[in-house]
Amino acid sequence: MPNSSPPKVLYCPEETCYYKAIHKQKCCHCEGFTDWEYHNRSLGELSIKLNPKNYSFGEVINRGPDENLYKLRFNGRLLTFVPEKICDFRELVIVELRNNLIRDIGNISCFNTLDTLVLSGNYIREIKAHTFKYNRNLRILDLSYNMLATMSSDFLPPMALSFLILHHNYFRSYDVSNLGIMMNRPFCLIDISYNILTEETITNKQNLTFEETGPAGQGSINFQHNWISTFPGFVLEVFSFKKCQEASRLWDYKVDLRNNPIQCDCKLVPIMEMVQPLLSFADHIFHVYLNISCFYPPYLKGISIYSIIKTGNWEHMTCPLTLKDDCPRGCECKFKLSVNRVNFLSAEKIVFVNCTAAGLYKLPHKIPKGDKYYLFLSKNTISDISPRYYFRFTKILNLSENRLYKIDSTSVELMLKIEKIILTNNMGLVKIPENVKLLNPCRVKFPNVHFVCTCKNIWIKDWLMKSHSSNTGKKACNIDNFFCKTKTKVIRLVEFNADRLFCDREYDIYARDVLITSITLILSSIVALWTLSYFRFEIVILLRKRYFTCTYRSMSRRRHEYDVFISFDEQRVDIRKWVMKELIPMLQKEDYSFYVPTISLPIGEIRTEEIERVVLKCQNYIVVLSDEYFGEGTIWNFF
After folding, report:
1. 12, 269, 503, 510 - which has most CB atoms within 10 Å?
2. Of 210, 209, 335, 333, the residue nearest 265 (C-alpha)
């Protein structure tokens, strides 16, 4: 939108605006005097004489002396149209036609000097796109208490317009694109209160954006008493803000959303986290702009957003998730946002999945998308902890009161970043994988685990004792939850003495493994040497036989193209079947090359010539005899 300055000249009341240095420009613009007010010039008073037979028509009359400028006031009558002859008085600066029966504004483009137009309390249903195109000096436009339901996005407000009053109409949708000229220069008030607008029906079809430079609007935009439920998302989306720095330009305006059914949920958290650090030095600003009361949820109804920010009590402000968002059936899912203070779009999504007593017998395969997870899966019948992709992003995992008996070792590798794992009241858990020692034992709450006292389980005691601190007297975590069974009794793991079982410690185990490996290699070498010595002649014979066989075959293949030529009566189905399924596979298994005319003869070759050539290059011949073999037409009759 172009950054245009209004053509009208206003006289600034210095005594009023002198102390408002920061907003002096707005003060001068909204409280300034027109030329006739500043110079105390009197305005000629016009009136309308209605036709008694038809109140649709009236005659504009001048009841006083001729003046340079005029005003027309005709309120509370039965006027249904703006009189056409009103254009005879082109010097009109004020027109008030309140509480009449006017349905159409008509053509008023003839008034270049018009400053104020008040048509409140009529029956106007539509404003055409170019109704005020030529009213360049129109500063105040009051269309309140009419029957307006929509306004075209092509509607061009007058260049000098500072007050646009549209409250108490029937607007169900509104496009803010037509406010671009006003909002990118100083203006005073845009009042769209007491309508039926929602965040979905307020649009920005022409992508109105705020000018990077130039004077800010510094005006008030009143959206009170509508049906807007989201904040600040409504403002950010409508005005195409992406970053907090851009949204800060809204402080040049006063966007009033009070008395709307504001939903105080997770979408409010980013603005709260952004604003809270700024309260210490800009408290008075935020107290004004965020004095918006919540309507939902019920426990926050009537509490202002400013109060919630100041107390920092927004832990329970969440948004629901459904089956469409991959929430497991029978579970309650919700999320909240934690803001990135540079860019709203990168806010962290924290997902809570509550599947307590949801009838699950295994871990959900899919849960709603998020950046962090808090999973509550207690009071189900889950039997094992299988690997799940979301373990990498989980902060709390509660699997208490299930039927766990197994923990997959792969799952443990995915759970290294979980801050708290609760496994209490799972009496079937008797074995845990050894890589559990990769976890901090104080981050896991185990049930009472019973196992047999063996050397294989001594690592559990060593792992748990790592959390014991002799300096602070801190007790080892979970040390009272592990028990082992001896032949005579059950003892606490802390009482288990590995020396009684002659168990090796880690350094002994390494030495033992090295010793066993060395002894195995030495024994294997001795056995191999004895075998070579005892069977040395047999080994030599086998090697020579294999060598001469391979050498002979290799030399033979240098002289011959095929090892064997196979000839048989191709008309006999039984013989052909035996050759294909028995003889040929046997030759292939022994690595012999062969030539069978039925399958080896190239397409397009003359059969007799090709067979004659191949027979000369075969080392051996296999002939399968039959009664019909020596009849006419067999290959041997050609030689």
Report:
1. 269
2. 335
